[in-house]
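From the shared-data thread, chain only:
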Amino acid sequence: MKKIILTILFLLLFPSIFAIDLKIEKVSSKEVIIEELKQPATFDLKIENLGASGDFEFYNLLGFDITPKKVNITNGEVKDVQLKVYPRDDLNYKGFYTFEYFIKAQNGEQVSEKLTMNLINLKDAFEIGSGEVLPETNSINIYISNKVNFDFNDINVKFSSAFFDLGE
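Structure, as tokens:
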């Protein structure tokens, strides 16, 4: 009788001992891939390991290259992971794109999560405009606004019209 009770307890507890138990929170927003730049969308994740320590592998079934491939997270640790998703050359899609990715533990257990990225052309990343044009003034205010959360570093612009040429 003791063997039966121990066997039942073992079978009930065994999955919870080895099950992947992660708390995953996405802390970034407006992840974008600009087609002409061929740079990854970057997702900032906060992952808390509530289960067994070990290496956790990131992957997807859609062919997006993801880095990092593996991250080691100990029991009770909260780790900031910057997940980079690289564009596929054959993906001809524009707009918001949601995909499923997986995190697999060393024991084979896994969880799936979803992320959404925005795939756009470079011309759609900016809003360019001017202030009111008054004929009696010799100046005009021109603005460039970054419409997406993407660090463009240094940008060179050239504006031209019948009245001026400006490069900056």
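The helical segments are 2-18.
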